[in-house]
Amino acid sequence: MADRTDPEVVPVGDPASMDRATAVLLAGGTVVLPTDTVYGLAALPSVAGATDQLVTLKARAAAQPFAVLVADVAQAYDLIEPPADHIAAWMAELWPGPLTLVLRRSVVAGNLVLGGDPETIGVRCPDHAFVRELAARVGPIATTSANYHGQPTPTTAPAAAAALTGPVGLVIDGGLAGTVASTVVDATSQTWRILRLGAIGTDRLG
User: Fold this and answer.
1) CA dist 190 → 73, 92, 93, 182, 187 (Å)
2) Residues 6+ apart with CB under 8 A from 114
3) The pTM of the whole model exceeds 0.85
4) How many C-beta atoms surround the C-beta of residue 189 within 10 A?
């Protein structure tokens, strides 16, 4: 991509990594960070203009929605209308894990800038301790795969950052990542449907 100054890279195990990521996100910046699936590109949807940077960095359509990563089920419940029993069971049994649920937004989540339908929200609790602690500190984190739109997501942090159209505020290096994203399920109506088949198969959603 374009020439630019290389961003700061901090190993996930560095004692300063959590404080650095917290500071960058709260200031409205962007972070490449590891998850339990692929490397993510993150910003805070509660900070004005922050998620606009994700659109630019990925060169993707502005209308395409971002999901949020949360610290735990309790944080997710603050963002959604009360889910159906089977959805609540998935949240209890399959989180933390690679399942993104698209649900109806609560009033609390109405001010989050995520693109797409303002009445819905994609939520996931990742099986990655760093990301969950970060979300506990800063609130729900808008995240998309750290890659140029339409291209595979690189499996290393520096390569993921280099694949974007410009510099990010910080790179958290968590080592080699996977290549399979989360499964995304639209559960906004009584009959759920899979929007993207990923790391969780349909056999676990029965």
Assistant:
1) 21, 19, 19, 22, 7
2) 45, 51, 65, 66, 67, 68, 121, 122, 142
3) yes
4) 9
Can you tell me the distance from the alpha carbon of 99 to that of 122, in angstroms, rounded to the nearest whole number?
Answer: 10
Instruction: Read off the tokens for 154.
Output: 């690189």
Q: Which amino acid is at 151?
A: Q
Contacts of residue 53, defined as CB under 8 A and 6 or more positions apart, other chains included, come to 29, 30, 43
Distance of alpha carbon 128 from alpha carbon 136, whole angstroms: 13
Give the pLDDT of residue 62: 87
Axis-axis angle for helices 129-138, 17-26 (nearest 10): 40
pLDDT per residue as tens digits for the range 141-161 = 999 999 999 999 999 999 999
Q: What range does the domain containing 144 cover?
A: 9-176
CATH of the domain at 94: 3.90.870.10
Q: Report the distance separating Cα 115 and Cα 122, nearest Å.
A: 11
The answer to whether residue 187 sits within a structural domain is no
Helix, coil or strand: residue 120:
strand
What is the count of structural domains for the chain?
Answer: 1
Query: Which of 65, 52, 75 is CA-nearest to residue 184?
Result: 65
